[in-house]
Amino acid sequence: MALVEQLPEDWQRGLVIAAHPDDIEYGAAAAVARWTDQGKDVRYVLVTSGEAGIAGIPPVTAGPLREAEEIASAKIVGVHQVEFLGHPDGRIEGNLALRRDLAAAIRRHRPELVVLFNFGDTWAPGYVNSADHRAVGRAGLDAISDAGNEWIFPELTDLPPWSVRWAAVVGPTVTHAVDVTGTVDRAAASLAEHRRYLEVLRSEPVADQVRAIVEQATGPQDGFPAAHAVGFELYTFAG
């Protein structure tokens, strides 16, 4: 079995792209906190506002609520730029329009590293991954190449092409990891900001949910010397 390597950290600006508010806080926020502690500029792009995600609360109310929770959550781990693209929660279409919007976001924020999330058909054996997650992850990976090509979306004339060095995908395949032993507590506090969402999601107290989620998402990785780590599959685009 190949050893899990240290994720490259010789970069200054990162962009995390996710489908919904709270996606980032299911583990990746611990890595974000480590990076912002290093002085890196990390920004978030949320494809939806999560407006269809709270049972019993209509989208017109849930959307602003979940945006506010995400913004508060991001601040805890040192992220102060959070952009919402306004695609419909639960009905994201993995098409050219999504790729164009993500390519534009990459050109706006000009990251060296882009973090994406599991876009496979399942998130665990026997459990189907969200259609939104599949669409955003796959389109995001394509949009990295699109962002560096001046001819694929020529309508983005106001945004100069931008080439990303790496994509790091949080998912079932792990090739690289970062040590988050020192940022687990802040990751938990970040997830706890999604209180209204978590209260409806399960009957367990929010604190218990947060503890279980963060412990699972930041456990040790095989062959990686850290008690707490976040694992990624790394893709290289440019040297």
Overall 3D form: globular
In the CATH classification, which architecture applies? 3-Layer(aba) Sandwich
Helix content: 25-40%
Q: What is the percentage of strand-forming residues?
A: 15-25%
Give the C-level CATH assignment: Alpha Beta
Give a description of the structure.
Helix content is 36%, strand content 18%. The chain is of the alpha/beta class and 239 residues long. Strands 1-9-10-8-5-2-3-4 form an eight-stranded mixed sheet, sandwiched between helices. A two-stranded antiparallel sheet has the order 6-7. A hairpin with a 2-residue loop joins strand 6 and strand 7 (127-128). The longest helix has 18 residues, at 59-76. The chain is globular, with a radius of gyration of 17 Å. The two termini are 27 Å apart. 46% of the residues are buried. The mean pLDDT is 95.
Pick out its properties.
239 residues, alpha/beta, Rossmann fold, 8-stranded mixed β-sheet, globular
Topology of this protein?
Blueprint: E1 5-6, E2 13-18, H1 28-37, E3 41-46, H2 59-76, E4 82-84, H3 96-109, E5 113-117, E6 122-124, E7 127-128, H4 131-147, E8 166-170, E9 176-179, H5 184-192, H6 195-201, H7 206-217, E10 229-236
Parallel strand pairs: 1-9, 2-3, 2-5, 3-4, 5-8
Antiparallel strand pairs: 6-7, 8-10, 9-10
Quick description:
The protein has 7 helices and 10 strands. By secondary structure, it is an alpha/beta fold.
